[in-house]
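Supplementary Text 2. Reproducibility record for the structural model of the 96-residue chain.

All settings were left at their defaults, and a single model was retained for analysis rather than an ensemble. We include the record here because the model underlies the residue-level annotations in Supplementary Table 4.
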Amino acid sequence: MSQVSPTTETDSFADRPLTSALSGCMYAGFVIGVSVCMLLANAVVCLTVNSALPEYAPPEIQARVGQFFYFTAPVVLMVLQWHLIDRVGRMFARAE
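Retained model, structure tokens:
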């Protein structure tokens, strides 16, 4: 019975091709680019929604609520969008 020693393991960083590292970097760049586009689109949607709402409080309170809304709503929408993209991707991956 032969045992494989841990030093003969072939899955080291030096043995992996450079293309796997480059493809990982390209995927990370793609995800960042898509996230930036989502944040910009979500910010425009939030600006439109908040400007369409009627005034409901004094200007000081409305400014604070608006600032909170402008910060959290695009990020929450982006998380939901990525979640939906993952779910749709898994749904079509199972169908193949």
